[in-house]
Design a protein that fits this description.
With about 450 residues, the protein is mainly β. The protein folds into two domains: about 1-110, membrane protein fhac (Ubiquitin-like (UB roll)), CATH 3.10.20; about 115-460, Beta Barrel (Porin), CATH 2.40.160. The protein contains five helices and 18 strands. The protein has helices at about 1-10, 30-35, 50-55, 70-80, 455-460, and strands at about 40-45, 85-95, 100-110, 115-120, 130-140, 145-150, 165-180, 185-200, 220-235, 240-255, 270-285, 295-305, 315-330, 335-345, 385-400, 405-420, 435-445, 450-455. A 15-stranded antiparallel beta sheet has the order 4-5-6-7-8-9-10-11-12-13-14-15-16-17-18. The radius of gyration is 27 Å and the shape is elongated.
C-alpha cells in the first residue's frame, strides 16, 4: 500500500530520531501506515505527446491532500481506461520535510490514432462491402477525442446504375472540461451522420423469389442526414451523466418492384421527407481495470430517447436500452466476462431506432447480417420493439509485452438473443436467433485492437 510505503520511506528521512532509536513506533508498521501523509507534489513521468494538465484532469488526487490508497488506485484506473497508455505505475518519494511525500505517476504512452472499425463482408444482394474507422483518442495531447468512419458497398448486385449504399460518421468528444477548478466536472460532444441505404420488403427474409433480379424486389430506399450534441457532468470518477439533442432529416421512398402485391411488411418509416427531433439521456459507469482484457470491474450503461412533434419533428416515440458487462478474474490470468442487454421501444419509432437481432449475436441464423454503421446489407429487414440478450465469454491470455502485437488472448463465448415486434409476438424460424457462439483471437497493437472472429466470418460471408 502506498501509505505504508510512504511511511517506511519517511522513516529514513534525516529528521527522524538519531541512530539507535527505533525506526518504527512501538505499534510497528500498522501504526506507521495509519499516519496521515500529505501530498506535497505530483510528478508525471514518461510523457511525450500528452500535456501534463490533461493527465492531471483525470486524477482523483491533488497536491495538498492527504495520501489515500483508494484515490491513487482510482487515478491509475482512470488513466488506463483512457487508452492513452499501455502501462501506468505509481510510487511515492519523500518530500521536502517530514509528513510530506511526492506522488509519482510513471506512464508508457501508446499510439492514440487507432483503427476503430474494420469492416469487410459479402451478401447475395451486395457481393462485397467494406469500411474503415479511425479514432484519435488524445488529439493534440489535449485529451480530446476525434473519430470518423465510413462504409460502402459499391454497386448493388445486378443494379450497376442504382445508388450505392453508403454511410459516414464523424464525432468529437471532450471527456473532461475544467470549470475553474482542478477537478473535471463536465463532458461534451457532437456527432454527424450521413447515410443512404436500402431495406428489402420481401414476404420472406431471404427474398428467394427475387434472387438474381434484385431490382424487381420490393425495397425501401431511404437517406438520413443529421447529428446529435450532448453535454453533461461526471457525478463520480467512473461515471458520466449527460443529455443531448438529436436532429435528423429522414427521407424514404417505397420501390414496389415488379409485383406490388407481393411485398411483405415494410420497415417502419414515414414516407417522403421528414424531420426527426429527439431528446436523449445517458448514464454510463465503467470501473473495468483494462479496456482490452478486463479481469475485474463493471461497465453499465442506460440510454433513453424521446422523440416528439413538440420538439418540431414528425416522429413520436420512446426508446430505452440498458447494457451491462462485468469481469471476474480467474487463476493463471484467465477471466470470465458476463454480458447482458435489454431494450424496448414504444410508439412509431423508425426502423433504425428499433432493435436488429443480428447486431447483438455473434452470428445469426438465416440471411440476417449484423449492420455496419447502421447500414443493412442483407435481405432481412425486420426490426423489433423488444430485445433481450445474455452472454458469457471466457478469456485465455496468450502473450503480453510483444513488439507489435502487444497482447493477445483467446476468447470463447456464447450468447442468447431474443427480440420481437410486440410483447406477445414470436419470431419466424428464419429470423429467430436463440443462441450463437464464437471463438476469436483478440490482438492489442499500436494501431488498434483487432478481433479475428470465427462467428463474424460465418455471419458476413454468406
Amino acid at each position: 500500500m502506498l501509505a505504508l510505503a510512504a511511511a517506511l520511506l519517511l522513516a529514513q528521512a534525516p529528521d527522524l530520531p538519531p541512530p539507535g532509536a527505533a525506526a518504527l513506533p512501538p505499534g510497528g508498521a500498522a501504526e506507521v501506515a495509519s499516519r496521515r501523509y500529505v501530498i506535497e507534489r505530483i510528478r508525471v513521468e514518461g510523457l511525450e505527446r500528452t500535456r501534463e494538465w490533461a493527465v492531471r484532469a483525470h486524477l482523483a488526487v491533488a497536491e495538498g491532500e492527504v495520501l489515500d490508497d483508494e484515490a491513487v488506485l482510482v487515478s491509475r484506473l482512470r488513466l488506463l481506461q483512457l487508452g492513452w497508455y499501455s502501462r501506468v505505475e505509481t510510487r511515492v518519494e519523500k518530500g521536502s520535510q517530514r509528513g510530506l511525500v511526492v506522488l509519482v505517476f510513471t506512464v508508457v504512452e501508446r499510439n492514440t490514432l487507432i483503427v476503430s472499425d474494420l469492416v469487410l463482408g459479402s451478401t447475395r444482394p451486395e457481393p462485397l462491402y467494406g469500411g474503415l474507422g479511425l479514432s484519435q483518442q488524445n488529439f493534440l495531447g489535449e485529451g480530446l477525442g476525434l473519430s470518423g468512419a465510413f462504409v460502402t458497398g459499391g454497386g448493388p448486385a445486378g443494379r450497376p446504375l442504382e445508388p450505392t449504399r453508403a454511410a459516414a460518421r464523424a464525432s468529437f468528444f471532450a471527456p473532461d472540461i475544467l470549470l475553474g477548478g482542478s477537478r473535471p466536472r463536465m463532458v461534451a460532444g457532437a456527432s454527424l451522420l450521413a447515410l443512404r441505404g436500402e431495406e428489402f420488403a420481401c414476404p420472406d427474409p431471404s427474398c428467394r423469389d427475387w434472387r438474381g433480379r434484385w431490382s424487381a424486389a420490393p425495397r425501401l430506399r431511404y437517406s438520413r442526414l443529421g447529428g446529435e450534441v450532448v453535454a453533461g457532468i461526471r457525478p463520480g470518477p467512473f461515471e458520466r451523466l449527460f443529455a443531448g439533442f438529436r436532429l435528423e432529416r429522414v427521407e424514404g421512398t417505397r420501390l414496389e418492384g415488379a409485383d406490388p402485391a407481393a411485398a411483405g411488411a415494410w420497415p417502419s418509416l414515414q414516407p417522403g421527407r421528414r424531420l426527426l427531433t429527439a431528446l436523449t439521456g445517458t448514464y454510463d459507469r465503467d470501473t473495468r481495470d483494462d479496456f482490452f482484457f478486463p479481469h475485474e470491474g463493471t461497465r453499465f450503461s442506460a440510454q433513453v430517447t424521446f422523440a416528439s412533434p413538440a420538439l418540431g419533428g414528425d416522429y413520436e416515440y420512446a426508446r430505452w436500452l440498458v447494457t451491462a458487462e462485468t469481469a471476474v478474474a480467474l487463476p493463471r490470468g484467465h477471466a470470465v466476462k458476463l454480458l447482458g442487454a435489454a431494450g424496448a421501444t414504444q410508439g412509431e419509432a423508425p426502423f433504425f431506432d428499433r432493435f436488429y437481432a443480428a447486431d447483438w449475436a455473434y452470428f445469426s441464423l438465416g440471411p440476417a447480417v449484423g449492420r455496419a454503421l447502421e447500414l443493412n446489407f442483407s435481405t432481412d429487414s425486420r426490426y423489433d420493439a423488444l430485445l433481450a440478450m445474455g452472454g458469457i465469454e471466457y478469456g485465455i491470455p496468450l502473450w503480453s509485452r510483444g513488439d507489435f502485437f502487444h497482447r493477445g488472448y483467446l476468447a470463447i463465448g456464447a450468447r442468447a438473443v431474443y427480440s420481437a415486434a410486440t410483447a406477445r409476438a414470436d419470431r419466424t424460424p428464419l429470423s429467430r436467433t436463440p443462441a450463437s457462439g464464437d471463438v476469436a483471437l483478440r490482438l492489442d497493437t499500436p494501431v488498434g485492437s483487432f478481433n479475428l472472429s470465427l462467428g463474424y466470418a460465418l455471419d458476413v460471408f454468406q
